[in-house]
Amino acid sequence: MNIEDVGPHLEHNSKRLEGVTDIEWKIALKKAENHLNYRLWNRTKYGAHTVENLGIPAKEYYLNFAYMSILYGTWQWKDEYDLTQQMIRIIDSRISTVVESYKRTIKKNEERKKEGKLPYTISLESKDVETIFYNLENDISLDETQIKEIENQYALLEQFVSASEDDDIIVFWECTKAGLTRAEISEYIGKKPKQIDKIKEKFLRQIQKEIKPSGK
Amino acid sequence: MENKTAIKTLNNLYGLLIEMNYHKEPVDFISDIQKEDPFISKHLQNVLLHRTKTKAIIKERKYIALKEQFNKLKELGLEKLQELFPPKEKVKMARLFRKFEELSEEDIKDINDDQDFLIFISSLKDKLKDSDDPN
User: Fold this and answer.
1) Cys-Cys crosslink for A210: which of A47, A148, A156, B85, Cβ 3.0 to 4.6 Å?
2) How far B26 CA sits from the closest chain A CA (Å)?
3) In tens digits, what is the pLDDT along chain A, a chain of 216 residues?
4) Quick check: B60 contacting A, CB < 8 Å?
5) What ipTM is given for this predicted complex?
6) How many whole angstroms separate alpha carbon A187 and alpha carbon A172?
């Protein structure tokens, strides 16, 4: 899709954008950037979200795609969402589309290899880390470097939590391991979701040196 | 097995961070956005640039649509258009009808911001549609 093309929601979106200040734009961009940092964790070195596949760094690509889609009206800015929510929805949808299309190309390339033909894109190797993270139950082997990277990060976190004497940090990590959502943690600990967010901020602040989100 | 635990836990962690970021109130971002951030500044500049471009596109599209409407109405002729209105209304609209008659295609750009005249053109279009509609 050519992003410069004007979409059917141009006028509608433009009317809503009239009320958006620069500060609101900055907040929306920052929130969408955070979303991408977490969403693209460990996913930009191999597979669908590499520069080889997208042409530019993944974070630039998806952020740009989201706001251009709203500005040029190729996506409707729905009344029930604020600017950030709409941007995040566009980003997530685009990520799924890119992953699906990447998987299709990989499959086609494998078929072409079997037929003795050259693959469509030489850079598309079958190192699809995506498959693992989009479907954890999938039993697909990662290469050694990737496994080592994940294990190192995990070990650092375990080490950090074991050394911590802060109950909030310890419980937060246990809840994360158990796969609890924000609301579930809130119920389990007996604190409001906003207080859980504060614990998360504390957790992140303290492990900042150990965890550096990818996608930058 | 250990690999699976590591992958699953880190995936849980990032899933949780995504959820918490989604629920974070705009006011809690104020201190973040006050810091110097070349990435955000670059994208904000891009947003503002394309906002200006899209505004220009909208204006241009409005102009093209208006020109089309105007040409269609001109083809019908002033007399026929005046017949669509009851005499009292016709008198009230004399000024706008005069303007319509004197207006050429080149002048349309200037009337793009003339709200009274735009409403008048739109009412001519509606009247015409009503008179064509047998119901």
Assistant:
1) A156
2) 6
3) 444 568 999 999 999 999 999 999 999 999 999 999 998 887 787 788 889 889 999 999 999 999 999 999 999 999 999 999 999 999 999 998 898 888 888 888 788 778 877 666 534 333 333 333 333 333 334 667 777 888 888 888 898 899 888 999 999 999 999 989 888 999 999 999 999 999 998 998 888 765 554 444
4) no
5) 0.76
6) 12
Residues of B whose CB is below 8 A from A85: 22
